[in-house]
C-alpha cells in the first residue's frame, strides 16, 4: 500500500495484511504509531497493489474500538469520471506552476551572479518530484478502474504507465545533476528536456482521457497532440 507521508507528502510504501470484505478490503494497524495509519488519518487516498495490479482506494476508519480502515476501491461511473477529469486538470495545473517556478530560477539572472541558484532549483525539484511521484502513483491505481470502465483506453493507459517510469528516471538524473557540482548549463539542458517531456505527457493524457471521462467519447486510436 502506498500512502502520502503525513509530514512530508512523500510516497510511503508499506506491506500490509488486507482482508477482503465483498468488494472492499479491511486493513488493521497494530498501534496508533503505525506511520501508514497516521498517513491515512491525514489523507485517505491510497494505492493498493493486489497481485501486482495497482488500485486506487479511499480509506474510511473502522467504527468501534478496532484500529484500521475499510479500503474502498475506485469505481468509475459517469459522475466519478467527470470528477477525475476535473481533478486531473487541477493537478496538471499545479505541476505546471511548479515547473514554471523552477524555470524562473534558471532565468532569473546570470549564473555567475547567482550562487544560490542550485540550492533554489533543488528545492523546487524536491517539491516537484514528490508531488509528481505521488500524482503518478495515484494515477497508476486509478488507471485500473478507468480501463475497466473504458476498455478502449487500454493502449493509451499502457503508454501513460510506461511514460511514468521514463519520467521517474529523468527526474532522478536531474536530481543527480543538482546534487553534484557539474556545469549549470547541463542542468538547464536536462531541465528543458524533462519539462518538454512532461508537457508532452500531460498533453497526451488530457487529449486521450478527458473525452472519455467527460462522456464525450473515446478516440478510435490514441491521440498524439500536435505542436
From TrEMBL:
Pfam families: F420H2_quin_red, Hemerythrin
SUPFAM superfamilies found in the cross-reference section: FMN-binding split barrel
Gene Ontology molecular function: oxidoreductase activity
Domain Hemerythrin-like: 85-213
Coiled-coil residue spans: none
The protein's name in its UniProt record: Hemerythrin-like domain-containing protein
Amino acid at each position: 500500500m502506498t500512502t502520502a507521508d503525513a509530514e512530508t507528502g512523500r510516497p510511503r510504501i508499506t506491506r500490509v495484511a488486507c482482508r477482503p470484505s465483498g468488494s472492499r478490503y479491511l486493513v488493521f494497524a497494530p498501534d496508533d504509531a503505525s506511520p501508514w495509519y497516521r498517513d491515512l488519518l491525514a489523507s485517505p487516498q491510497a494505492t493498493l497493489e493486489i497481485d501486482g495490479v495497482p488500485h486506487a482506494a479511499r480509506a474510511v476508519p473502522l467504527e468501534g474500538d478496532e484500529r484500521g480502515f475499510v479500503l474502498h476501491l475506485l469505481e468509475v461511473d459517469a459522475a466519478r469520471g467527470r470528477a477525475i477529469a476535473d481533478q486531473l486538470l487541477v493537478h496538471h495545473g499545479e505541476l505546471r506552476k511548479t515547473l514554471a517556478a523552477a524555470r524562473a530560477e534558471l532565468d532569473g539572472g546570470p549564473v555567475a551572479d547567482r550562487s544560490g541558484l542550485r540550492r533554489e532549483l533543488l528545492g523546487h525539484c524536491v517539491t516537484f518530484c514528490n508531488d509528481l511521484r505521488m500524482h503518478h502513483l495515484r494515477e497508476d491505481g486509478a488507471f485500473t478502474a478507468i480501463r475497466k470502465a473504458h476498455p478502449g483506453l487500454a493502449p493509451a493507459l499502457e503508454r501513460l504507465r510506461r511514460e511514468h517510469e521514463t519520467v521517474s528516471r529523468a527526474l532522478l538524473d536531474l536530481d543527480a545533476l543538482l546534487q553534484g557540482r557539474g556545469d549549470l548549463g547541463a542542468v538547464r539542458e536536462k531541465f528543458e528536456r524533462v519539462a518538454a517531456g512532461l508537457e508532452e505527457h500531460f498533453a497526451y493524457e488530457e487529449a486521450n482521457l478527458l473525452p472519455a471521462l467527460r462522456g464525450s467519447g473515446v478516440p478510435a486510436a490514441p491521440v498524439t497532440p500536435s505542436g
